[in-house]
Amino acid sequence: MKARDDQITSKTGYRVHMPDDDGHIAWSARENATWQTLMERQLALIEGRVCQEYLDGLERLALPLDHVPQLADVDHVLKAATGWETAQVPALIPFDTFFELLAARRFPVATFIRAPEEMDYLQEPDIFHEIFGHCPMLTNPAFAEFTATYGRLGLEAAPKERVYLARLYWMTVEFGLVDTAAGRRIYGGGIISSPKETLHALSDTPVHAPFDPMDALRTPYRIDILQPLYYVLDSLETLHELSERDIMGMVHDAMAQGLFEPRFPPKSLSA
Fold first, then answer.
1. How many Å from the N-terminal Cα to the C-terminal Cα in the chain?
2. Residue 214 domain-assigned?
3. In total, how many domains does the chain have?
4. What is the DSSP string of 202-231?
5. N or C end: fewer C-beta atoms under 10 angstroms in the chain?
């Protein structure tokens, strides 16, 4: 059982762990301690803030508290629930690969975890963001179907169309809110895996707008700030209904209409 050589990610210098021939990844004691810190912190923060579908998925996954989970254990639960599984990837991946994986119901997971000094913000999504933030929602049929549909559409889309599709993904899968009988709740993985965003998203600071796919497609965003705007679903079934609509037709309409004015200050170069 020989471990493969690890690889350095392209931008941040994080070392991506390669699985051995049995699919097992050996995580260090420091990395497992980081996972435990992140888990304990986020589990305390999300109580009363995330939707029940996420909590149900988290219970099904039964993620370990004191060590980074093995992808095979996550896959076992996802396959039984919605036919999904994870795919080990080296951090950020090309659009083509990303869409191919989603279309095949394989969710990309970068096999590195952030350093203790970068607990709150990371340029590239790590295993905590992907597993804790996203995988519980992939046990939900409506969310899982929308994500697979998104992958199929992106696979066939032209580069300019993909830029608009990315905005739809950002405003739903990454940073979506949903109204429930218990109140407004979080379902987006980009919020759920971030302590600052978890508190910010449901505060009085950002704008909450009813979800409209055309609006989402036309909304600029930046990846390096707390979001100034969140779109709110009536229910998660809205995503399933959206997956059956002509999303690419909406993309073309959004391209014709152009983007809304940004709700954030520009960077040195706008994102």
1. 44
2. yes
3. 1
4. TSSSSEEEE--HHHHHT----SSS--SEEE
5. N
Structural domain includes residue 194: yes
Could you give the CA distance from residue 146 to residue 173 in angstroms, rounded to a whole number?
A: 9
Query: What's the burial of 55, exposed, middle or buried (CB within 10 Å: 0-12/13-18/19+)?
Result: middle
CATH of the domain at 143: 1.10.800.10
| 67 carries a ligand binding annotation | no
The region that residue 126 occupies, defined by phi over 0 for left and psi between -120 and 50 for alpha, beta otherwise, is beta
- Considering the domain boundaries, does residue 57 fall inside one? yes
User: Whole-angstrom Cα distance, residue 245 to residue 247?
Assistant: 6
Whole-prediction pTM value? 0.92
Domain of residue 190: give its range: 29-257
**156 labelled binding-site residue:** no
| 65 found inside a domain | yes
> Are the CB atoms for 154 and 147 separated by under 8 Å?
no
174 among annotated binding-site residues = yes
> Which residue, chain included where needed, has tokens 């940073």?
175
